[in-house]
Amino acid sequence: MTEITREEMDVDVLLVGAGPANLACAYRLLELIEQDKASGGSLGETVIMVIEKGAHVGAHSISGAVLDPVSLKELIPNFSELGAPVKTPVSSETMLYLTHGGKFKVPWVPSSMRHHGCYIISLNELTSWLGAQLEAKGCEIFAGTAGAKLLFEDDKVVGVQTDDKGINKEGEPKAAFEPGMNLRAKVTVLGEGVRGSLTKTLISKLKLDDNRNPQTYTTGVKELWEFPAGTLTPGAVYHTMGFPLDRQTFGGGFIYNLSDTVIAIGLVVGLNYRNPFTEPQALFSQMKTHPFIAKLLEKGKMIRYGAKAIPEGGYWSVPKNYGDGFLITGDATAFLNPARLKGVHLAIKSGMLAAETIFAALKKGDFSDAALLLYDQKWRSSLIYQELYGQRNFHHMFEHGVWSAPGFVVRRLLQGPGAFRKRPPIIEDHLNMRKLTDYFGSSVPKPEQWRPKPDGKLVMNKLDAVYFSGTHHEEDQPSHLLVKDTGICATKCVSEYGNPCQFFCPAQVYEMEDEGAGRKLKINASNCVHCKTCDIADPYGIITWVTPEGGGGPKYDGL
Ligand code: SF4
What we know:
It is built from 17 helices and 24 strands. By secondary structure, the protein is of the alpha+beta class. Strand 16 and strand 17 form a beta hairpin. The radius of gyration is 23 Å and the shape is globular. The two termini are 40 Å apart. The structure holds iron/sulfur cluster. Iron/sulfur cluster binds next to helix 17.
């Protein structure tokens, strides 16, 4: 393709990703600027721009979700009067251990899993509402615009190049081609969510994760089910352990009654699993066939589907999240409390702290690493640090499977608080996956034997489920899933791991097809729900997720 001439635009603050963290950042920053103006401050006109790859604000937001409202209250104290979709307080909580056919109630719910004062919400609705509050303040959000590439001057981030629109599968411009722009900013805030593609590049280029643990993840698969009016008790929360996960696999299920007619139900599966045939979507289907859950779902019907990876590494895995010309907020910097399985309140708080940091930088006219260090100082003096440091070893407890946790607790009791003061070493998730013969021995079973058969109600095949995520991409565009060497898929991976991409992807993007005497990888990129699991879980680390044309992807609604 010939060299592209791009338009340039200068802004003061560029926010990449309109999730709760960056929306909170822009909202708080506008407030600080308004206050400065009102008190005769020296700050001139400040241009803040938010770009979002989803077709609209909230389209790519998905979470459980039980919200701790602490940060939202701080950001917008009258959120209830303004009609925030935060209306269902948690009314009861139950923790269950599921066996194959039965269940027992766990008599003691750990304090981290108690939700008094929290609300069951749809993150997707909360994000859209936050976007509307921001737009009401006069800030424009450019949805359908992806950040394709970071712009650097040496190691300084100076902005982002947005996505080109109208490139065909072969990489050639189509008639409606529109080149992306170079948005140049004094400070760029990366709030792309989990495993953001620009954030990943930045972390690697500037070695922001030096002396940190590698990030560790789970993948959550979630559905909404609708019931006749009056069927459900709003606010009821169930967490499940055990079935269908084996003892080496971290994770658990959740059921949240959003209202008297809708529940959110899902399963979270640790991506440090051993069995290469682990398939989060199929395991979730299995979970729904458990007699207790099947009975619960009897009168309902599935209305929405979605999936996303969750950064669970906690304190030890937080990368350096500031530097010359940039800050990283929310899930993108792993501000998630893994013991509470909650990150929305920390994301909002991180956005607010980023705003205060940027405001101070704007005042000084200094956007260097030294000036933006303030963000680090701020989050370390906030509830983000309190929560993350307090639960810093949570994920490590389960590093060797669910049953390694009691041994960890015993060691803590015997050796006292000093036992785990140092950073415990962990390895990247995908390195835990065992080769077929290591895991199964000489007789490797057919993976299908674990997949429950679609029954049109509890169990759906992946393609039918993806339909309920509203996912759509322009078909005639280059694949946004870059596989470095498909030869590995067709040869080494077939025999060593049995092509686990076919299993871990919850949207049937990856399929192995027969080709002559061998196998060939087929990528159905248009099914992708942007969960990022493949970028994390591939055992050879050869899959890279990059942004497709802006506006593509899921259109979550109520998730
Ligand atoms: Fe998730 Fe990757 Fe599948 Fe897309 S292709 S749905 S990012 S696993």
